[in-house]
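forwarding from the other thread:

> can someone predict this with adenosine monophosphate?

sure thing
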Amino acid sequence: MPKSSKSKIKKTSKGKVKNVKSKKEKKTFQSPKGMRDILPSEQSQWEKLRKTVIETANFYNFSRIDTPILEDVEIFKRGTGIYTDIVEKQMFVLKTKGRDYLALRPENTPGIVRAYFENGLSRFAQPIKLYYFGPFFRYEQPQFGRYRQFHQVGFEILGGEDNPIYDAQAILTLFRLIEDLKIKNLTIQINSLGCKNCRTAYTKKLQEYYRKFSSKICKDCRRRISLNPLRLLDCKNENCKEIKEQAPTIIDFLCSSCRSHFRGVLEYLDELELPYVLNPCLVRGLDYYNRTVFEITAEGYDLSLGGGGRFDYLGELITGKKNSFRAVGSSLGVERIIELMNAKEIKGLTVPKAKVFLIQIGKPAKKRAFSLIEEFRNAGIKVVESLGKESLKSQLKLADKEKVELALILGQKEFFEESIIIRDMKSGVQETAPLNKVIDIVKRKLKKKTK
Ligand code: AMP
């Protein structure tokens, strides 16, 4: 909402006093609450992250996919789950002129699964490994590490078998990405939510247990008992904490095949000596997970950096048809990684600086300088300039600030003589060269300087 700077007090016909905004009032616009601009000064860290994402994805053979930012709201209701916080409280939903209800995607996995089926990706060799990078939207109370628009990187392994090696690979890929960004002391929190069969027995037990404490637990937990019992384990309320600690754990209810699947995942993590801890309270906020769920945390940072899990039932939920779809994936919160990079003073990607500054004086020289820059571009030499400036002094000052090695000066006289002055910024020595030879001469001089 724009902030109003001026408004007038007016009386209505009924004599009530009303605050009426003047038509001419000046408005100060701000970015929407919980959404922010990523300024040029922050881009080097984002670039580093993007580059590392591409390298990691390429190494582990994930191909990029981009899906629309808006999806049919039903996808999230069916996939993410109607009683999850994301769907119940956090979706930005809009009605189109065609009366469709679309949601600004709060997460990507249901959209990816939709794209998998819609585009016949099951016809390719399975599993198909996809990755994404983009903005997501959740109507949250903005605070440190929690925004209404944020970015996620995700890796999904879709189709194929439910072999635990894929669970381990989804975890490993995310882990290596964070590690490659020089963020250290990571821990993988891991749990298994079992399959439909073992989960039914477990949730029944959990409901029985929590019903005994219904007068002591928070209002949200009282609702969760019947609507979404697994989320009871997610509650951060202090009153519920002690009750949660004594609650039955799902591990004791896993059927033999879920148990052996979970053991398989842990063995693969052991093989690579990845640091994990079993967390029986880890359920994650999304309904579609089965078997493996995990989160990655870093020492000294309270929020999870990323997480994921297996979502074998999501294919059926999205298509409404029985199928043998199996999948596992992971995603990472980009803003949280950037916050950590800042806190740990981890440098971003540095763009190579230009070594040449082109100074122009006078209208004809300015025009010629404009095309000369293109000639340097074709020769692969980066040039900085300040084309709006007129005086030699101010442009030399800028060249100095840019710490370039050479300044090229194209003035009125040089323009008519088809020459150019080449100034060595360190020694101050100047020479005049023919304009049509300047690129070769600059190339040679720069080569000499890097020797
Ligand atoms: P989720 O999709 O809920 O499993 O979240 C995956 C990761 O995305 C989390 O571990 C966070 O790093 C990040 N994340 C989720 N919600 C937000 C948010 N509102 N603001 C910033 N990052 C978020």
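The CA atoms of residues 175 and 296 lie 7 Å apart. thats all i got for now
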